[in-house]
Design goal:
By secondary structure, this protein is an all-alpha fold. Helices cover 73% and strands 0% of the residues.
Length: 239
C-alpha cells in the first residue's frame, strides 16, 4: 500500500501573488479615484487653514478698530470739516491702492495693519464730527463678536465650513453676547445678518475656486472693500 507524500511546507504555505496586491498593478480607474480622493482631501485641508486665517485676521482687524476708536476719541481735541473731507479722500485713495495691489507682494501684514489704523482714525474722526462715535463703537464690537465666533467655529473638525451654519453660529455669538452685555438683541440680529451677507458675497467665490489665494490678506482686503471705502465716501459727501 503506497501513501502519497505530502507537499513540502514551503510549497503549501507560499502566498499566491495577485495583481490587486501590488499598487503598481492596480487598474487605472482605481488609481484615478485614489488620486482624486487625495487631491480632494488636500484641498479641504488647505481651505480649512485659509478660512481660519482669514476670519482670525478679520477678528483682529475689527478688535483693533474698536480699541483704536476709544484712543482717537480720547486724544481728539476737536474736529474740523475740511480735515475730515481731506482724510476721507485720502482713505478712498488708500482703499483704491489696496484693491489694485491685492495680489501684489506689496500687500504684507504690515501694510494691512497701516490700512486698519488709518481707517480706524477716519471712522473715529468722522463719527466724532457727526456725534455718532458710540454707535460706531457698538457696531465695531458686534463685528468682533461675529468674526471671533466664526473663527472659533473654524477650529472644530466635525462640521465643514459650508452653507449657512458658520454664519448662523457667528450671529448666535453676537446675539448671546449682546443680550448679556448690551441688551440690544434686535440690533445684534440685524447687523449680524448684514455681516453674514457681506461675508458670503466677498468669500463665496474664493472658497468655490479650485485654487485659493496664497495670501489670506487678499480675502481680508476684498471684505474691507465692501465697507471702508463706502464709509469714506459717506463722510466725504455728507454735509
Amino acid at each position: 500500500m503506497s501513501v502519497d507524500a505530502a507537499p513540502p511546507a514551503n510549497e503549501a504555505s507560499a502566498p499566491v501573488s495577485t495583481a490587486s496586491d501590488d499598487p503598481a498593478q492596480a487598474p487605472p480607474a482605481a488609481k484615478s479615484a485614489s488620486a482624486k480622493k487625495l487631491r480632494s482631501s488636500h484641498q479641504l485641508s488647505a481651505q480649512a487653514v485659509f478660512v481660519q486665517k482669514v476670519f482670525l485676521l478679520l477678528a483682529v482687524q475689527f478688535l483693533s478698530l474698536w480699541l483704536l476708536s476709544f484712543l482717537f476719541a480720547a486724544l481728539a481735541a476737536g474736529t474740523s470739516w475740511s480735515f475730515l473731507k481731506l482724510s476721507s479722500l485720502a482713505g478712498l485713495g488708500f482703499s483704491l491702492w489696496m484693491s489694485e495691489n491685492r495680489n501684489s507682494p506689496l500687500l504684507s501684514d504690515k501694510v494691512l495693519a497701516y490700512y486698519t489704523v488709518f481707517e480706524a482714525f477716519i471712522i473715529s474722526y468722522g463719527s466724532l464730527y457727526y456725534k455718532s462715535i458710540q454707535q460706531v463703537q457698538f457696531l465695531a464690537m458686534l463685528s468682533v463678536y461675529f468674526f471671533a465666533g466664526i473663527s472659533l467655529y473654524t477650529y472644530q473638525t466635525k462640521v465643514k465650513f459650508v452653507g449657512t451654519l458658520p454664519h448662523l453660529f457667528g450671529i448666535a455669538i453676537i446675539l448671546i453676547l449682546t443680550m448679556l452685555f448690551e441688551h440690544s438683541g434686535l440690533a445684534a440680529i440685524v447687523y449680524g445678518m448684514y455681516l453674514s451677507a457681506h461675508t458670503v458675497i466677498s468669500m463665496l467665490e474664493k472658497l468655490a475656486q479650485p485654487s485659493l489665494p496664497e495670501n489670506p490678506n487678499v480675502a481680508v482686503v476684498d471684505w474691507d472693500m465692501y465697507l471702508f471705502p463706502l464709509l469714506n465716501f459717506y463722510f466725504l459727501i455728507k454735509y
